[in-house]
Design a protein that fits this description.
By secondary structure, the protein is mostly helical. The chain is built from 14 helices and six strands. Helix content is about 75%, strand content about 5%.
Length: about 450
Amino acid sequence: MSFATTSSTEKSWFGHPRGLTVLFLTEMWEMFSFFGMRAILVYYMTKHLDMNQEHASLVYGAYAAFVYFTPVFGGMVADRWLGKARAVVIGGATMALGHFMMTWEALFYPALCMIALGNGLFLPSLASQIEGLYREGDTRTKSAYNIYYVGINLGAFLAPFVCGTLGEVYGWHWGFAAAGLGMLLSLVIYLAGRRYLPPDPQRGVAAQAARPPLDGAARNRFALLIGIAAIVVIFRGAYEQVGNTIALWADTGIDRQVGPWTIPMTWFISIDSLVVFAFTPLLVARWARLARRGIETSLLGRMAFGAAVVAASYVALGLIAGWHEAHGTRASWLWLAGWFVVFATGELYILPSGLALFGRMAPDGFRATSIATWFFAGFFGNLLAGGLGTLWSQFAHGWFFVMIGGVSALSAVLLYILSLCTGHVEKHVTVDAQVVPSR
């Protein structure tokens, strides 16, 4: 049964159900804690724990990878045993504990494990509740994922200013503590708004009987999703350099002086989220106008375009870094700010579109598992990003960024080829996914 209501009070956020506002705010503060910790992690390791750059990049990549690995099992646990509500609460509490553990140096590695484990339950269980807010065939689900993605980036925008500034100015442990408080606030919002969210379905033997079988069509959907995820792995190898080598270049290769004041390194990450706020309404409005004219834009096509934009941004950054490196100077902070604008524009085309694709193509009864498959691409992608990051000290920085641009370009080509080969399949499956009853 679909959870949507018929009351006039149903709409409260861009014409969407109240539950989307609850999920939006819950995810916003969870992302505040996640990106707040991530913004200072590589600096904490290199400046406070005295790790060398190669080791810090590997640790960063391994942590970020397992943040996307644990949702695969967390989504299965939520679908089959715990239910989404319990999974969100247990996962959120575990993550909050991990963030507070980061304030003790001796608990550094256990804390990273706690955050990754809690994230495994929290992440797929929250995002997979979006579809249950809408009736069968409701076209608002397309824009719902973009609005939800704004929530992710609102938290990511605030995090560097709060956690990053506290970490750089007052001590890294204060930044980690602020991230923990953000996670607690996320839990409070979720529990307070629980009544507006889809009820958890029955589980156990009865649930297995009620769940539609995973037939050939459903298996074909999963096969296509796995193929897309494999390509996204390549893209994330480039995308996830933001908190790794891009952060290192902001420290060593950028002139951050504005008069007598030095711009904090972590503030640049907020530009990414600022672009999301500014451009998401424009893109959603454009796609809505095209839909009213009967022009349906392919989600895979959008993803390919986004990866190409990210590739171009890295190549341009490589040229800038190479020129300044050859002349023994630091690049202006305006170049890095401009790079984030182009980079985030490409991100808007690929990441929300991918999340929407995996949510809408999910067979009935396997939505959290499908969302987890999308996040699983982040596991291998971050391992790739960590491995690529170890080359930072071995390459000229200009050539390193050009190489990363080539990685993103490869994913763009593969996504475009897949969109040409499966365009009719994507359209057919997407329409089918809209009329499958929500759990």
